[in-house]
């Protein structure tokens, strides 16, 4: 095995290891974002402003209680965070969760690129 092949294999093993460590956390975030209502709530928080349940529920047919349940799922997944201000809870996007997804997707994308490169090399041989 050439030095380049050994180096490439070591990179693949390292990427698989990083991917498998991050997969459980990414799965929780993807599951939370997999619901259209929760994804819309994240979109409303995308400007990084803090908003109350009332503000987030404006223009929605959902009850305050339903929005609260969706926000709790997002908070449990680490996508949003809340803080109390008087009698209200204010919610804000946690950008670290989204950044973590970007890194995870880059790892998976890199694995697919490597697999396609290996397939191409195999077919060309």
Radius of gyration, CA atoms, in whole angstroms: 20 Å
CA(first)-CA(last) distance:
16 Å
The proportion of residues in beta strands is 5-15%
Shape type: elongated
CATH homologous superfamily, by name? Winged helix-like DNA-binding domain superfamily/Winged helix DNA-binding domain
Specify the biggest β-sheet.
3 strands, antiparallel
Number of helices: 5
Class based on secondary structure composition and strand pairing:
mainly alpha
- Low-pLDDT parts are none
Look at the structure and give the CATH class.
Answer: Mainly Alpha
Series of secondary-structure elements, N-terminal to C-terminal: HHEHHEEH
Give me the CATH fold name.
Arc Repressor Mutant, subunit A
Region (Disordered): 1-23
InterPro entries: ArsR-like_HTH, HTH_ArsR_DNA-bd_dom, WH-like_DNA-bd_sf, WH_DNA-bd_sf
Domain HTH arsR-type: 18-113
Protein name: ArsR/SmtB family transcription factor
């Amino acid at each position: 095995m050439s030095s380049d092949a050994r180096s490439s294999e070591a990179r693949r093993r390292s990427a698989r290891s990083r991917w498998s460590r991050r997969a459980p956390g990414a799965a929780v975030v993807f599951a939370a974002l997999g619901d259209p209502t929760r994804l819309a709530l994240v979109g409303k928080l995308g400007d990084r402003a803090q908003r109350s349940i009332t503000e987030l529920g404006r223009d929605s047919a959902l009850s305050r209680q339903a929005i609260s349940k969706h926000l709790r799922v997002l908070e449990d997944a680490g996508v949003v965070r809340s803080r109390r201000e008087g009698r209200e809870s204010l919610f804000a996007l946690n950008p670290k969760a989204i950044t973590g997804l970007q890194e995870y997707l880059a790892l998976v994308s890199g694995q697919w690129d490597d697999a396609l490169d290996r397939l191409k090399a195999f077919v060309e041989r």
